[in-house]
């Protein structure tokens, strides 16, 4: 039987502590050779700016192989629809049976913020207290909630290109609205960039010593980036997947094409830090940057949690695809 989980099903079950733990384990499994994560192929139709990514992964630990089909459709903004939409298909790694089909929207939001929390715990200064947010939409709310599980947040400073959005976020969370992106960056101990930017909105010249950055928002396109070249050069960069970074991360591919860095600059993966194969933060003044692309293995880890919990609680809809 195949389990169907709608967005409302997912939201009834999913919690940050569990997803943070699952994402942490998934990245450690990848570094230990217990999981497989190829770079996702990007499908583009002639005459369209739409992109479709098949984000595949397989895990011995979780007993699953999954693929999330992500549709990145910029024209949806004018239609009043989400720019990114997705669904996750999960099959048994043992016998290939179709275990589940899940709506990908809520899963993506939770696992993205969870990955930033994992990276923050591994790379930020232990005494980090100020969270800076560039971008004030749904991902900002998700990150504020997720990072509260791994750092003691005394203050949140937020900036958005849309003032009304940042004011609404501040009213809901008690954050202080910064007048400029630079102000939010300079005040932060941990900075999350959460904008679908094509051109940099954050400058490395603004980075204070000891900052940790989660670069999250740019879509999976090689010419889109939130951080300028100086920011990448000044930072010790850790990626979720080297193969994926080389395939779709404008934050590293643009500086690489400019000759400002080499591939060695982003050779370290998050899972390698987690298992101690490479060091985490090496000094109080060091600037660290987690280049968050969002990978299929994170979706797989969250899917495993949700499938097990749904069957325990009798949630979702079971159908016989072979019937």
TrEMBL record:
Name of the protein this chain belongs to: Ornithine cyclodeaminase
InterPro entries: NAD(P)-bd_dom_sf, ODC_Mu_crystall, ODC_N
One Pfam match: OCD_Mu_crystall
Stored Gene3D superfamilies: NAD(P)-binding Rossmann-like Domain, ornithine cyclodeaminase, domain 1
């Amino acid at each position: 039987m195949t389990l169907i989980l709608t967005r409302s099903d997912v939201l009834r079950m999913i919690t940050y502590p569990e997803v943070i733990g699952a994402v942490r384990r998934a990245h450690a499994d990848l570094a230990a050779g217990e999981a497989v994560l190829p770079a996702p192929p990007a499908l583009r139709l002639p005459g369209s700016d739409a992109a479709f990514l098949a984000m595949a992964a397989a895990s011995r630990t979780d007993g699953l192989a999954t693929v999330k089909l992500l549709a990145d459709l910029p024209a949806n903004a004018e239609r009043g629809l989400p720019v990114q939409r997705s669904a996750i298909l999960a099959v048994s790694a043992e016998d290939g049976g179709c275990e589940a089909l899940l709506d990908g929207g809520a899963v993506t939001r939770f696992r993205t913020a969870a990955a930033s929390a994992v990276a923050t715990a591994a790379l930020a200064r232990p005494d980090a207290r100020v969270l800076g947010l560039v971008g004030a939409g749904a991902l900002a709310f998700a990150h504020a909630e997720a990072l509260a599980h791994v750092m003691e947040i005394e203050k949140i400073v937020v900036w958005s290109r849309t003032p009304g959005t940042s004011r609404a976020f501040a009213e809901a969370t008690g954050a202080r609205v910064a007048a400029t992106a630079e102000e939010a960056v300079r005040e932060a101990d941990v900075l999350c960039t959460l904008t679908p930017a094509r051109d940099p909105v954050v400058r490395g010249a603004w980075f204070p010593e000891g900052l940790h950055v989660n670069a999250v928002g740019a879509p999976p396109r090689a010419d889109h980036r939130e951080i300028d070249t100086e920011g990448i050069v000044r930072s010790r960069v850790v990626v979720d997947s080297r193969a994926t970074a080389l395939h779709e991360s404008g934050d590293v591919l643009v500086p690489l094409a400019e000759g400002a860095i080499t591939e060695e600059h982003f050779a370290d993966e998050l899972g390698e830090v987690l298992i101690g194969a490479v060091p985490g933060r090496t000094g109080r003044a060091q600037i660290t940057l987690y280049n968050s692309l969002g990978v299929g293995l994170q979706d797989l880890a969250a899917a495993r949690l949700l499938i097990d919990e749904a069957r325990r609680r009798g949630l979702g809809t079971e159908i016989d695809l072979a019937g």
